[in-house]
Amino acid sequence: xxxxxxxxxxxxxxxxxxxxxxxxREDVERRLEAQRxxxxxxxxxPKEIVLKMPGSSGVGLAEIVIFTxxxxxxxxxxxxxxxxxxxxxxxxxxxxxxxxxxxxxxSVETGSTFADSLRKHPKIFDDLFVNLVAAGELGGxxxxxxxxxxTHIEKAVKLRRKVKGxxxxxxxxxxxxxxxxxxxxxxxxxxxxEMFKNFGNAALPGPTQVVVDISHFMIDNILMIFAxxxxxxxxxxxxxxQREFKKKFDRIVLKxxxxxxxLRKAAVARFTRTLGTMMTSGVPIxxxxxxxxxxSGNIVIEEAINYVRSRISEGTTLADPLLETKxxxxxxxxxxxxxxxxxxMDIMLNKIADFYEEEVDVAVEGLTQLMEPIMMVGIGGxxxxxLIAMYLPIFSLADTIKGGK
Length: 405
Hints:
- The chain is built from 16 helices and 3 strands.
- It is mainly α.
- It has a 3-stranded antiparallel beta sheet.
- α7 runs parallel beside α16, α10 (243-255) packs across α11 and α11 packs antiparallel against α12.
């Protein structure tokens, strides 16, 4: 729908400016006349060209946190939500987020609730955000809900960054090792081989011959290897979109000997933090569990949460079906049971989240310290083995020359 920029005067003579989404200029004039504004200028705005990566919202979580904090401050100060959205959209540097906020503002202006207006942009504002805003609007505590949301997103980003850090380091080192070994096999080994041919027809030592054969294979099949390097990540990305494959992959990931415990602790922290935030904000438990399951990022955990949700709808407690899933640690289930018994479930969930976030900190630090020497020894062993294999014929030639003397 087109956007029109307008300018006019109020009955008091004050000049006002703004933007309205409407089909025609006449619609804009009618709506402004209904607000008793005498229009002096209406101009159709050209569409903004916004570039973003395919599949991306174009808006980072840090930008959403800043917006949420600022909006909470403005509402707490008594500013109307439309005026607050207008100010925030005008000062927003991200063009995609700016267009989104303007659309939300215009939707609120036309009579939609703030939550319904946000729901039109699911790639930026997820179900958790929208449902908490809806609860805040219903309870008249939107400012406190927004502050709670900002805190929740900040902690979620921090947790995600730690887990990604634990996974990124070994993958980065492994990638560098593959590149170094590839350069040795393609560029360095052929030079040594040419030098060995000048020594005569003597047979090469076994390790040297193996390295030379691998070098030949890589050079002869360089295009196929390059195609595989490109195709495997693309194929894996496609497979991860298939639910059954992703379910099997997620189950394997949770059982990995080193990374599995870290990912499980991160999943527990995310589950308890999100559920605790929603319950504190007054969202019904069944709705909260539905959103938490979708936001888990792991199909095994999502199905476990869905099972818990179905059992609660039948009248059971939260702790019993959680224990039956065998996905969540027994200590977590016992603490949740205590929270149910004392009527302080939201407080207990947030305490569990604090504990497991700290556990993730410790686990990531320990994992990094463990992986560093392992990766260094592994890379050093491979590169060193290749170099020793290349120098073996030179050592043999030196022994032959000494024996000849």
